[in-house]
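As promised in the previous annual report, we have extended the structural survey to additional targets. Below is the entry for Thioesterase domain-containing protein.
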Amino acid sequence: MSLALNIEELMGYMASVFPQVSDDFAIEELSEDRLIMRLKVAHRHLRPGGTVSGPSMFALADCGVYAMVLARVGRQGLAVTTSCSMDFMRKPEGGVDMLAEVRLLKLGKLLAVGDVLMRSEGSDKIVARATMTYSIPPAGSVAAKAG
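The corresponding structure token record, generated without further manual editing, is:
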């Protein structure tokens, strides 16, 4: 299966449906089986102790899998997260961006499952891992037409 959206189309669409977070993220790489998303770490992403907060890492994983699903299936604004499991393994650096490597493990007609490995830029050490499941609106549904 080929990509339905390239990086520019994907970033433009995400900015139109989620303008509140569009400045926080950038897609660095995109292929049929992998996406690299950057969290542009700012003060608002930090928790006491100067580390990136859990909610910010969740947002990175969630937006990364959402972007990967959209890249494959096209403009489906109402694709939604149905499940998430996250493991926090070590403290990320607070003064550098975070990178998430996203891979789709399954892409069906109604569900997509993605795996995300997150690290601080400049380090190979994984700081968190997430598995996300997304529900994709059935073709022809009102939800699918909303995209």
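Residues 15 and 22 are 5 Å apart (CA to CA). The chain has three helices and eight strands. These points will be discussed at the next consortium meeting with the crystallography subgroup.
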